[in-house]
Amino acid sequence: MGSSGSALRVCADHRGGINWLSLSPDGQRLLTGSEDGTARLWSTADGQCCALLQGHESYVTFCQLEDEAAFTCSADCTIRKWDVRTGQCLQVYRGHTSIVNRILVANGQLFSSSYDRTARAWTVDKGQASKEFRGHRNCVLTLAYSAPKDLPGDPCLEAAMGGGLLVTGSTDDTAKVWQVASGCCHQTLRGHTGAVLCLVLSVSSHTAFTGSTDATVRAWDILSGEQLRVFREHQGSVICLELTDGLLYSGSADRTVKCWLADTGERVRTFPAHGHSVSALKYHAGTCSCGFVPITSVFPALSAM
Question: pLDDT, tens digit, for every residue of 211-261?
Protein backbone atom coordinates (compact mmCIF):
# COMPACT_ATOMS: atom_id res chain seq x y z
CA MET A 1 0.00 0.00 0.00
CA GLY A 2 1.11 3.58 -0.53
CA SER A 3 1.08 6.45 1.97
CA SER A 4 -2.70 6.74 1.68
CA GLY A 5 -3.21 3.00 2.27
CA SER A 6 -4.54 2.38 -1.28
CA ALA A 7 -3.54 -0.63 -3.45
CA LEU A 8 -0.96 0.06 -6.16
CA ARG A 9 -1.03 -3.33 -7.95
CA VAL A 10 -3.24 -6.42 -7.75
CA CYS A 11 -1.73 -9.82 -8.67
CA ALA A 12 -4.65 -12.22 -9.01
CA ASP A 13 -3.71 -15.29 -11.13
CA HIS A 14 -3.31 -17.79 -8.28
CA ARG A 15 -6.14 -20.27 -7.73
CA GLY A 16 -5.63 -20.32 -3.97
CA GLY A 17 -4.57 -18.05 -1.13
CA ILE A 18 -1.08 -16.54 -1.13
CA ASN A 19 0.93 -17.86 1.81
CA TRP A 20 4.09 -15.83 1.28
CA LEU A 21 5.74 -13.26 -0.95
CA SER A 22 9.36 -12.28 -1.61
CA LEU A 23 10.73 -9.23 -3.38
CA SER A 24 13.88 -9.41 -5.52
CA PRO A 25 16.91 -7.43 -4.28
CA ASP A 26 16.40 -4.84 -7.04
CA GLY A 27 12.67 -4.54 -6.32
CA GLN A 28 11.68 -5.34 -9.91
CA ARG A 29 10.21 -8.81 -9.32
CA LEU A 30 7.89 -10.36 -6.77
CA LEU A 31 7.63 -14.08 -5.97
CA THR A 32 4.44 -15.49 -4.44
CA GLY A 33 3.83 -18.96 -2.99
CA SER A 34 0.29 -20.26 -2.94
CA GLU A 35 -2.21 -22.77 -1.59
CA ASP A 36 -2.62 -23.93 -5.21
CA GLY A 37 0.80 -25.66 -5.02
CA THR A 38 2.58 -23.21 -7.32
CA ALA A 39 4.78 -20.15 -7.06
CA ARG A 40 4.56 -17.26 -9.48
CA LEU A 41 7.03 -14.59 -10.49
CA TRP A 42 5.59 -11.11 -11.16
CA SER A 43 6.82 -7.84 -12.60
CA THR A 44 6.36 -5.08 -10.02
CA ALA A 45 6.21 -2.52 -12.83
CA ASP A 46 2.94 -3.75 -14.32
CA GLY A 47 1.75 -6.63 -12.10
CA GLN A 48 2.06 -9.19 -14.91
CA CYS A 49 2.99 -12.84 -14.21
CA CYS A 50 6.45 -13.59 -15.69
CA ALA A 51 6.85 -17.27 -14.75
CA LEU A 52 4.87 -20.13 -13.24
CA LEU A 53 6.87 -22.47 -10.96
CA GLN A 54 5.08 -25.79 -10.61
CA GLY A 55 6.24 -29.16 -9.31
CA HIS A 56 5.37 -29.26 -5.62
CA GLU A 57 2.81 -31.92 -4.68
CA SER A 58 1.12 -29.81 -2.02
CA TYR A 59 0.71 -26.15 -1.06
CA VAL A 60 3.69 -23.79 -0.96
CA THR A 61 4.34 -22.53 2.55
CA PHE A 62 7.15 -20.06 1.89
CA CYS A 63 9.37 -18.66 -0.87
CA GLN A 64 12.55 -16.62 -1.21
CA LEU A 65 13.68 -14.77 -4.34
CA GLU A 66 17.36 -14.21 -5.05
CA ASP A 67 19.03 -12.56 -8.08
CA GLU A 68 19.41 -15.76 -10.14
CA ALA A 69 17.28 -18.32 -8.32
CA ALA A 70 14.02 -18.77 -6.44
CA PHE A 71 13.53 -21.11 -3.48
CA THR A 72 10.24 -22.59 -2.32
CA CYS A 73 9.19 -25.03 0.40
CA SER A 74 6.03 -27.00 0.76
CA ALA A 75 3.73 -29.24 2.76
CA ASP A 76 5.08 -32.05 0.53
CA CYS A 77 8.17 -32.08 2.87
CA THR A 78 10.55 -30.76 0.19
CA ILE A 79 12.39 -27.60 -0.77
CA ARG A 80 12.95 -26.63 -4.40
CA LYS A 81 15.39 -24.33 -6.17
CA TRP A 82 14.24 -22.72 -9.46
CA ASP A 83 15.82 -20.87 -12.36
CA VAL A 84 14.03 -17.50 -12.42
CA ARG A 85 14.61 -17.05 -16.17
CA THR A 86 13.20 -20.38 -17.37
CA GLY A 87 11.04 -21.53 -14.44
CA GLN A 88 12.94 -24.85 -14.44
CA CYS A 89 13.42 -26.72 -11.15
CA LEU A 90 17.17 -26.96 -10.50
CA GLN A 91 17.30 -28.88 -7.21
CA VAL A 92 15.02 -30.77 -4.81
CA TYR A 93 16.05 -30.94 -1.16
CA ARG A 94 14.68 -34.01 0.65
CA GLY A 95 15.10 -35.04 4.29
CA HIS A 96 12.42 -33.41 6.39
CA THR A 97 9.69 -35.82 7.48
CA SER A 98 6.86 -33.30 7.75
CA ILE A 99 5.74 -29.93 6.37
CA VAL A 100 8.64 -27.57 5.62
CA ASN A 101 7.45 -24.30 7.03
CA ARG A 102 10.22 -21.77 6.31
CA ILE A 103 13.48 -21.48 4.38
CA LEU A 104 16.28 -18.94 4.50
CA VAL A 105 19.18 -18.49 2.08
CA ALA A 106 22.05 -16.69 3.83
CA ASN A 107 25.85 -16.72 3.93
CA GLY A 108 26.03 -19.36 1.18
CA GLN A 109 23.77 -21.75 3.08
CA LEU A 110 20.14 -22.81 2.98
CA PHE A 111 18.32 -23.13 6.30
CA SER A 112 14.90 -24.73 6.81
CA SER A 113 12.36 -25.34 9.57
CA SER A 114 9.74 -28.03 9.78
CA TYR A 115 6.80 -29.50 11.64
CA ASP A 116 9.12 -32.47 12.32
CA ARG A 117 10.50 -30.31 15.22
CA THR A 118 13.85 -29.70 13.54
CA ALA A 119 15.67 -27.00 11.65
CA ARG A 120 18.33 -27.94 9.10
CA ALA A 121 21.24 -26.40 7.21
CA TRP A 122 21.83 -27.49 3.60
CA THR A 123 24.54 -27.09 0.99
CA VAL A 124 22.80 -25.04 -1.66
CA ASP A 125 24.38 -26.64 -4.73
CA LYS A 126 24.42 -30.31 -3.67
CA GLY A 127 21.08 -30.37 -1.87
CA GLN A 128 22.46 -32.25 1.14
CA ALA A 129 21.70 -31.50 4.79
CA SER A 130 24.92 -30.45 6.56
CA LYS A 131 23.53 -29.81 10.05
CA GLU A 132 20.39 -30.65 12.04
CA PHE A 133 19.17 -28.54 14.96
CA ARG A 134 17.15 -30.54 17.49
CA GLY A 135 15.75 -29.30 20.81
CA HIS A 136 12.33 -27.75 20.24
CA ARG A 137 9.46 -29.72 21.78
CA ASN A 138 7.06 -28.90 18.96
CA CYS A 139 6.87 -27.59 15.39
CA VAL A 140 9.61 -25.21 14.26
CA LEU A 141 7.96 -22.36 12.40
CA THR A 142 10.27 -19.45 11.68
CA LEU A 143 13.95 -18.70 11.06
CA ALA A 144 16.45 -15.85 11.12
CA TYR A 145 20.24 -15.80 10.73
CA SER A 146 23.04 -13.60 12.03
CA ALA A 147 26.31 -13.92 10.07
CA PRO A 148 29.70 -14.13 11.83
CA LYS A 149 30.66 -10.64 10.65
CA ASP A 150 27.64 -9.19 12.48
CA LEU A 151 28.56 -10.75 15.83
CA PRO A 152 30.93 -9.22 18.44
CA GLY A 153 34.60 -10.12 18.07
CA ASP A 154 34.94 -11.67 21.51
CA PRO A 155 37.86 -14.20 21.48
CA CYS A 156 35.95 -16.35 23.97
CA LEU A 157 33.01 -16.62 21.57
CA GLU A 158 34.93 -16.71 18.28
CA ALA A 159 34.95 -20.50 17.86
CA ALA A 160 31.32 -20.92 18.88
CA MET A 161 30.13 -18.06 16.68
CA GLY A 162 32.31 -18.96 13.68
CA GLY A 163 29.38 -20.17 11.62
CA GLY A 164 27.00 -17.46 12.81
CA LEU A 165 23.81 -17.82 14.83
CA LEU A 166 20.48 -19.28 13.70
CA VAL A 167 17.32 -18.22 15.56
CA THR A 168 14.19 -20.41 15.43
CA GLY A 169 10.65 -19.96 16.70
CA SER A 170 8.32 -22.80 17.66
CA THR A 171 4.83 -23.75 18.75
CA ASP A 172 6.43 -24.78 22.06
CA ASP A 173 6.16 -21.01 22.93
CA THR A 174 9.93 -20.45 22.75
CA ALA A 175 12.57 -19.21 20.38
CA LYS A 176 16.05 -20.73 20.36
CA VAL A 177 19.43 -19.34 19.32
CA TRP A 178 21.75 -21.95 17.76
CA GLN A 179 25.47 -21.99 17.04
CA VAL A 180 25.52 -22.98 13.36
CA ALA A 181 29.07 -24.35 13.45
CA SER A 182 28.37 -26.82 16.27
CA GLY A 183 24.60 -27.24 16.07
CA CYS A 184 24.38 -26.53 19.81
CA CYS A 185 21.67 -24.39 21.42
CA HIS A 186 23.19 -21.08 22.59
CA GLN A 187 20.09 -19.56 24.26
CA THR A 188 16.41 -20.39 24.77
CA LEU A 189 14.18 -17.29 24.70
CA ARG A 190 11.28 -17.78 27.12
CA GLY A 191 8.42 -15.36 27.82
CA HIS A 192 5.74 -15.86 25.19
CA THR A 193 2.57 -17.63 26.30
CA GLY A 194 1.70 -18.79 22.79
CA ALA A 195 3.35 -20.19 19.66
CA VAL A 196 6.13 -18.08 18.13
CA LEU A 197 4.95 -17.54 14.55
CA CYS A 198 7.47 -15.05 13.17
CA LEU A 199 10.76 -13.33 13.91
CA VAL A 200 13.19 -10.78 12.48
CA LEU A 201 16.71 -9.75 13.53
CA SER A 202 18.37 -6.38 13.98
CA VAL A 203 21.95 -7.44 13.26
CA SER A 204 23.46 -4.16 14.45
CA SER A 205 22.00 -4.53 17.95
CA HIS A 206 21.93 -8.36 18.13
CA THR A 207 18.19 -8.07 18.82
CA ALA A 208 15.53 -10.58 17.78
CA PHE A 209 11.88 -9.55 17.48
CA THR A 210 9.34 -12.37 17.82
CA GLY A 211 5.59 -12.40 17.14
CA SER A 212 3.23 -14.87 18.78
CA THR A 213 -0.29 -16.20 19.11
CA ASP A 214 -0.32 -14.42 22.49
CA ALA A 215 -0.87 -11.20 20.43
CA THR A 216 2.46 -9.66 21.47
CA VAL A 217 5.76 -8.83 19.84
CA ARG A 218 8.83 -9.24 22.06
CA ALA A 219 12.41 -8.01 21.69
CA TRP A 220 15.37 -10.14 22.86
CA ASP A 221 19.14 -9.91 23.14
CA ILE A 222 20.22 -13.04 21.22
CA LEU A 223 23.63 -13.18 22.91
CA SER A 224 22.42 -13.05 26.54
CA GLY A 225 18.86 -14.32 26.03
CA GLU A 226 17.45 -11.30 27.92
CA GLN A 227 13.91 -10.09 27.09
CA LEU A 228 14.22 -6.36 26.31
CA ARG A 229 10.65 -5.15 25.73
CA VAL A 230 7.09 -6.23 24.90
CA PHE A 231 4.88 -4.63 22.20
CA ARG A 232 1.21 -4.89 23.24
CA GLU A 233 -1.70 -3.57 21.13
CA HIS A 234 -2.65 -6.28 18.67
CA GLN A 235 -5.93 -8.07 19.35
CA GLY A 236 -4.97 -11.29 17.58
CA SER A 237 -1.99 -13.50 16.74
CA VAL A 238 1.04 -11.69 15.30
CA ILE A 239 1.77 -13.61 12.09
CA CYS A 240 4.47 -11.63 10.26
CA LEU A 241 7.12 -9.01 10.96
CA GLU A 242 9.25 -6.65 8.87
CA LEU A 243 12.08 -4.43 10.20
CA THR A 244 13.38 -1.44 8.26
CA ASP A 245 15.04 1.89 9.14
CA GLY A 246 14.34 1.52 12.86
CA LEU A 247 10.66 0.75 12.26
CA LEU A 248 9.05 -2.60 13.00
CA TYR A 249 5.92 -3.61 11.04
CA SER A 250 3.67 -6.38 12.39
CA GLY A 251 0.82 -8.15 10.57
CA SER A 252 -1.86 -9.85 12.62
CA ALA A 253 -4.94 -12.06 12.71
CA ASP A 254 -6.73 -8.93 13.93
CA ARG A 255 -6.65 -7.86 10.26
CA THR A 256 -4.28 -4.94 10.79
CA VAL A 257 -0.65 -3.99 10.23
CA LYS A 258 0.99 -1.90 12.94
CA CYS A 259 4.16 0.19 12.71
CA TRP A 260 6.34 0.55 15.84
CA LEU A 261 9.55 2.27 16.88
CA ALA A 262 11.79 -0.77 17.25
CA ASP A 263 13.96 0.76 19.99
CA THR A 264 11.13 1.80 22.30
CA GLY A 265 8.04 -0.26 21.39
CA GLU A 266 5.98 2.88 20.74
CA ARG A 267 3.25 2.39 18.10
CA VAL A 268 3.51 4.90 15.25
CA ARG A 269 0.61 3.90 13.00
CA THR A 270 -2.05 1.26 12.39
CA PHE A 271 -3.02 0.16 8.84
CA PRO A 272 -6.47 -1.48 8.54
CA ALA A 273 -5.11 -3.74 5.83
CA HIS A 274 -7.55 -6.52 4.95
CA GLY A 275 -10.76 -8.40 5.64
CA HIS A 276 -8.75 -11.44 6.75
CA SER A 277 -5.62 -12.26 8.74
CA VAL A 278 -2.47 -10.55 7.41
CA SER A 279 -0.05 -13.43 6.74
CA ALA A 280 2.76 -11.70 4.81
CA LEU A 281 4.17 -8.22 4.32
CA LYS A 282 7.15 -6.61 2.62
CA TYR A 283 8.50 -3.07 2.79
CA HIS A 284 10.41 -1.57 -0.14
CA ALA A 285 11.15 2.07 -0.99
CA GLY A 286 8.20 3.48 0.92
CA THR A 287 5.71 0.82 -0.17
CA CYS A 288 4.33 -1.85 2.17
CA SER A 289 2.83 -4.91 0.39
CA CYS A 290 0.55 -7.29 2.30
CA GLY A 291 -0.85 -10.76 1.60
CA PHE A 292 -3.57 -12.59 3.44
CA VAL A 293 -4.99 -16.07 3.99
CA PRO A 294 -6.63 -17.65 7.08
CA ILE A 295 -4.02 -18.37 9.75
CA THR A 296 -4.76 -22.12 9.84
CA SER A 297 -3.77 -22.32 6.16
CA VAL A 298 -0.36 -20.82 6.84
CA PHE A 299 0.15 -22.76 10.09
CA PRO A 300 -2.16 -25.82 9.82
CA ALA A 301 -0.93 -27.39 13.06
CA LEU A 302 -2.37 -24.44 14.97
CA SER A 303 -5.91 -25.49 14.09
CA ALA A 304 -5.49 -28.44 16.44
CA MET A 305 -4.02 -26.42 19.32
Answer: 999 999 999 999 999 999 999 999 999 999 999 999 999 999 999 999 999
Q: Contact at 8 Å (CB) between 114 and 136? A: no
Q: Are 278 and 256 in contact (CB under 8 A)?
A: yes
Instruction: Report the chain's C-alpha Rg in angstroms.
Output: 18
Q: State the Cα–Cα distance between residues 257 and 148, nearest whole angstrom.
A: 32
Please tell me the distance from the alpha carbon of residue 221 to that of residue 207, in angstroms, as a whole number.
5
Which pLDDT value is given to residue 89?
96
Which residues have a Cβ under 8 Å from the Cβ of 193 and sit 6 or more positions away? 173, 212, 214
Contact present, 272 and 6 (Cβ < 8 Å): no
Nearest Cα residue to 219 out of 142, 252, 228, 249: 228
What is the total residue count of the chain? 305
Nearest to 244 by CA among 227, 260, 224, 264: 260
Tell me which residue of 242, 240, 264, 265 sits closest to 254, measured CA to CA.
Answer: 240
CA distance 135 to 297: 25
Q: Is the dihedral of CA 8, 1, 42, 66 positive or negative?
A: positive
Domains and CATH numbers, the chain: 16-94 (2.40.10.480)
The pLDDT tens digits of the residues spanning 50-93 come to 899 999 999 999 999 998 899 999 999 999 999 988 899 999 99
Nearest of 39, 45, 43, 6 to residue 20 by alpha carbon = 39
DSSP state of 207: E
pLDDT-derived band at 1, boundaries 50, 70, 90: very low
